[in-house]
Amino acid sequence: MARIIGGVATSHTPTIGFAHDRNTKDGGSPNQDQDRILDAFAPVRQWLAEQRPDAVVYVFNDHMTSFFFDHYSAFTLGVGTEYAVADEGGGARALPPVPGEPALARHMATSLVTDEFDMAWFQDKPLDHGFFSPMSVLFDRAGGEWPVPVVPLQIGVLQFPIPTAARCYKLGQAIRRAVTSYPEDISVAVIATGGLSHQVHGERAGFNNPEWDHRFLDALTAEPEALAEMTHAEYATLGGLEGAEVIMWLVMRGALASNVRRVHSSYDLPSMTGIATLVLENPDIEVPTEATERHRARMAEQLAGIERLPGTYPYDIATGVKAYRLNKYLHGMVHREHRERFLADPETSFEEAGLTAQERDLVRRRDWSGLIHYGVIFFMLEKLGAVVRVSNPEIYAAMRGESLEEFLATRNTAMLYSVSGE
């Protein structure tokens, strides 16, 4: 089964990415401030290179780049196949997309919901400096490729109410159960980003508290339960309002054992944000097999027996990743330009969306049952139906292998309807 080898905590200020990119562009020309920032990450990078984790669970927060207030979630797990660098306004950094780990993410998703965490999922979203600023200095990229896949976990810490420190710590403990119950024999590192002390808004902008930063690093190592009891206002008082994002570090700490070993730590305050690194190594403790089996059984119980329901296909995360491209294309029918393009020139529309030959054929033939079996959720079918003037009952009949008349005969009212508003 999988095991957690340790955790890394790091600030994610754009200063780190800026130092990396400037150093790269300058060909490594001396710059004392940049060198000091980058040197602090060298032991962390070396530890990760020596440990060679097979996957990383990466905790971060977005800064209103790919996640916005039209839908803002507390805990959002990345379940996709890769994550590109986001453009935050001045162009995206020249870094390759980082590969995802969908199988591990899918297992974690089920486990976390089983532990009653109300999660959200994402894919096809680029990630901003909250992710890539430290990522770019934590891993060497031989041949331009990242050496490890990631499962990103975005925490909504910008719009109150936000998760409590205690909830973040409990989430980390749930992540430990999720990872250690994963049946593959892999090693996993947990990386958390954010902080340390800083405030970037209002008349208190520029606030720092190095003394608190050092106390926090010590407490995170030796007494995380005390940190979990603190309120957001207490974190803001000691470390600035934006500095309160260090509660994300408690997710990493909760995923580790109580008796961790501190391998490395560093601290610097070059400008607006305290930049720290921390490496905590997990003891090699085997989880009792019985406990793991009980947890896996709990994960499976909600859909146990569903396979005995004929013609029933739960839409799960694996399906969502597999058929994402086609579901996204059909979801585009909610936009007038997309559906008009589809009606006027479907083949060009298919080509621009990068649909496979199989996907194009399913849409061309309006193979409603085939689309379901491929992995399209029904609610995309009714959107396509609205565009091509096929009613919902006609789709239901086709999926059942019946004529419209045969299907309507099974209803109390023989009526046609769709979601079309035109």
UniProtKB/TrEMBL annotation:
Region annotated Disordered, chain positions: 15-35
Entries under InterPro entries matching the protein: Gallate_dioxygenase_C (IPR034940), LigA_sf (IPR036622), Xdiol_dOase_LigA (IPR011986), Xdiol_dOase_suB (IPR004183)
One Gene Ontology molecular-function label: oxidoreductase activity, acting on single donors with incorporation of molecular oxygen, incorporation of two atoms of oxygen
Keywords for this protein: Dioxygenase, Oxidoreductase
Claim: Oxidoreductase is one of the keywords in the record: yes
Pfam families: LigA, LigB
Domain Extradiol ring-cleavage dioxygenase class III enzyme subunit B: 8-272
Keyword Oxidoreductase assigned: yes
Limits of the Extradiol ring-cleavage dioxygenase LigAB LigA subunit domain: 326-412
Record-given protein name: Gallate dioxygenase
Biological source species: Actinacidiphila yanglinensis
